[in-house]
Amino acid sequence: MIKQDWQQTQEHFKKWWKREDLGRPLMHLVARRAEPVADLEPVAAPQTAEDLHLNVERKVREMRNRLKSHIYLADAYPYLSIDIGPGSLATYLGSEPVFAWDTIWYKECAPELADLGELTYDPEAFWWSKHLDLVKQAKTLAQDDFLVAIPDIIENVDILSAMRGPQNLCFDLMDNPDEVKKYVGQLDNLYFRYYDALYEASKDQDGSSCYTAFSIWGPGKTAKVQCDFSAMMSPRHFEEFVIPSLQRQFAELDNCIYHLDGKDAIKHLDALMALENLNGLQWTAGAAQQDGGSPKWYPIYDRVRKAGKGLWISIEDGGIEGWIRSAKNLVDRYGTAGLYLIFPVMSEPEADRILNLNWK
Prior knowledge:
Layout: H1 6-17, E1 26-32, H2 49-54, H3 56-69, E2 70-74, E3 79-80, H4 89-92, E4 97-99, E5 104-106, H5 126-142, E6 147-148, H6 156-164, H7 166-175, H8 177-202, E7 209-211, E8 216-218, E9 222-226, H9 235-241, H10 243-252, E10 255-261, H11 269-273, E11 280-284, H12 298-306, E12 310-314, H13 319-334, E13 339-342, E14 346-347, H14 348-355
Parallel strand pairs: 1-13, 1-14, 3-6, 9-10, 10-11, 11-12, 12-13
Antiparallel strand pairs: 1-2, 4-5, 7-8
């Protein structure tokens, strides 16, 4: 069993995707138990950065220990992520991952745009076959105790940026726009070849799925989509090179949110809000900025709400009193329908305070 009230959590997510009212916000709320409910399994420390990220057996043991030492409340659910960094689609197509203790990056693999050749699906590509096997292994070991998330493979222009390098791609957009469109089209064709296989490997028995980024679950195919490179694009280029890709993804996904990253990407917000099949927005302010609950970001949320989209907001600053204050202010301004609040891991008494809030 994923969690005791899993069926109710599923119903809450279904309502959130449709911007229907639960009577409270959808909430990701995880609490540390005062004492584990059972003895923790011994877990050997990883010896390399690659082992840290890709040792599925160790990750499963860590997850089982977390289930003993934490409790998943409100709409939080336990899931395991098996990611080869954010944007592993680039590795399937030729980039080499660089494993670090805190992240994974990708080596540029095409000094010239033409060096990319034709981007095609290769079922035997090393990092693709390895990644798919890792996800299948995790699903087998998880049994029915926790979910396995669809990895953060990322899409369209961000993958070209990983393979070419951001600076090179800036020049490509100016010097070879038709070639860039060609490669974006090839990536669009490939995206669901990989996504669908990972979905089949990780989905639950009822066909539902969760996506590794941002703790989202939904019936059918669920994903976060993005274009972080858009911070360096004009609105005209975003409309020309990115919007068609997003429209295709949104049409084929059952549930999707867009990850808008940084102040330089805000200029694309209205174009995104005009996309019919986009369910909601997740805003990341960037390093050294106030958390998602800050009134500083209300002008962004106002535009999202005006477009009838859902909001995914992370509240981090201020301790329990600050978390409650931010949550109440957001509910007062935007209501509870279509609002998903993500809280830091906290103590059980702190979690009880949030669970017992009056949202009216």
